[in-house]
């Protein structure tokens, strides 16, 4: 009886679903620290062109809370470094249209036109019927892969030294598909949607990413031992895709084993790119961020076939907004990922080296890193290192 009640919503959801068949977003790399990489044959390589002023137009979502402060640090440092970037501010304040959360059309047009955006932290309005703004952006632009490098930073001591792994999270389906309904009063069902098309797309990206940044291994993280059909499909697809990449070693690991091993000793994961379905990636990437000092030091990129959005994944911290206490490192490192994606390696390397020099020195760092510097003082220290 129960089975009959929930198969219909599943069929209806699948009837309305459409999935892109193209793969392979373009990303980029630097000599000093790899975040992402690109090649001429990648479908989603950056398509933007310089304007008549010799600069690329980039959509900038400053965000909420501390967002404007840390965004200003990025703008000041880019200007001092001579990066050929011209910012186009966009507002993604959500709107409810026909019962759905959407962002303003002019903001969609800006990001679509510029092919790339940098995003500060966003706060989703509570109690107003809005879904997560971050989720809305991913769905709007079909940002199918979330890339989260986790690498120890010299000068900031954590319980673990030498962490250097990469997590790639499928970004469009899984438990975050939003397919939920009430079966009977007191019983709610949430559908975990896994498709071969979306799985293959993110898995191919993971193998190509591993080749590009010189990681010899890809590991799929799963729970196919329990979810034999859904995670089983993801794992089977991974094994099939692996055959197309003979130079990359492939294996798999159950999620809970990965968590246990990584918090015991993360260094065996340094030669690997970890790829996984949506929910696992959300949890595991934040756990790995904790290994290197937290979300304030962790860059992130959401990659799509047409455009990509690079973001700070920490919260908007409204309690310290306007006080000059915010740490801009995560957004800065995400902006470096963006420059690499755009092929601006020289500027990425220059800014990155200056950031790491300031962090290693430890004299002009923000309070969350153990220092006493204000946000603008940190940015000024980075500018001096340029």
From TrEMBL:
Coiled coil: none annotated. Keywords: Magnesium, Metal-binding, NAD, Oxidoreductase, Transit peptide. Heterooligomer of catalytic and regulatory subunits. GO terms for molecular function: isocitrate dehydrogenase (NAD+) activity; magnesium ion binding; NAD binding. Belongs to the isocitrate and isopropylmalate dehydrogenases family. SMART domains: Iso_dh. Gene3D superfamilies: Isopropylmalate Dehydrogenase. The keyword Metal-binding applies. One of its GO terms (cellular component) is mitochondrion. Residues 57-382 form the Isopropylmalate dehydrogenase-like domain. It comes from the Eukaryota. This is Isopropylmalate dehydrogenase-like domain-containing protein. One of its GO terms (biological process) is isocitrate metabolic process. InterPro entries: IsoCit/isopropylmalate_DH_CS (IPR019818), Isocitrate_DH_NAD (IPR004434), IsoPropMal-DH-like_dom (IPR024084). Its cofactor is Mn(2+); Mg(2+).
């Amino acid at each position: 009886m129960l089975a009959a009640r929930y198969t219909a919503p599943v069929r209806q959801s699948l009837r309305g679903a459409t999935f892109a068949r193209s793969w392979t977003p373009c990303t980029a790399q630097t000599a000093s620290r790899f975040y992402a990489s690109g090649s001429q044959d990648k479908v989603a390589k950056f398509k933007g062109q310089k304007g008549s002023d010799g600069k690329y137009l980039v959509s900038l979502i400053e965000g909420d809370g501390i967002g404007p402060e840390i965004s200003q640090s990025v703008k000041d440092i880019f200007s001092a470094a001579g990066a050929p970037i011209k910012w186009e501010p966009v507002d993604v304040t959500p709107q409810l249209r026909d019962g759905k959360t959407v962002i303003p059309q002019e903001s969609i047009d800006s990001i679509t036109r510029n092919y790339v955006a940098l995003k500060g932290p966003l706060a989703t309005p509570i109690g107003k019927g809005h879904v997560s703004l971050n989720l809305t952006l991913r769905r709007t632009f079909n940002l199918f892969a979330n890339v989260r490098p986790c690498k120890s930073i010299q000068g900031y001591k954590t319980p673990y030294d030498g962490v250097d792994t990469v997590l790639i999270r499928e970004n469009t389906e899984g438990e975050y598909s939003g397919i939920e309904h009430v079966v009977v009063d007191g019983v709610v069902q949430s559908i975990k949607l896994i498709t071969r098309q979306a799985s293959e797309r993110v898995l191919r990206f993971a193998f190509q990413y591993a080749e590009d940044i010189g990681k010899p291994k890809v590991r799929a993280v799963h729970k196919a031992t329990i979810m034999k059909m859904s995670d089983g499909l993801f794992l089977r697809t991974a094994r099939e895709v692996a055959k197309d990449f003979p130079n990359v070693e492939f294996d798999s690991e159950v999620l809970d084993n990965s968590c246990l091993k990584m918090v015991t000793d993360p260094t065996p994961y340094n030669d690997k790119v970890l790829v996984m379905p949506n929910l696992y990636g959300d949890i595991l990437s934040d756990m790995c961020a904790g290994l290197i000092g937290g979300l304030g030091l962790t860059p992130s990129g959401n990659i799509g076939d047409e455009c990509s959005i690079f973001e700070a994944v920490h919260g908007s911290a409204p309690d310290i907004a306007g006080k000059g206490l915010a740490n801009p490192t995560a957004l800065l490192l995400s902006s470096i990922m963006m420059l690499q994606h755009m092929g601006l390696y020289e500027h990425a390397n220059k800014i990155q080296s200056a950031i790491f020099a300031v962090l290693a020195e430890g004299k002009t760092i923000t309070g969350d890193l153990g220092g006493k510097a204000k946000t603008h003082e940190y940015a000024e220290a980075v500018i001096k290192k340029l």
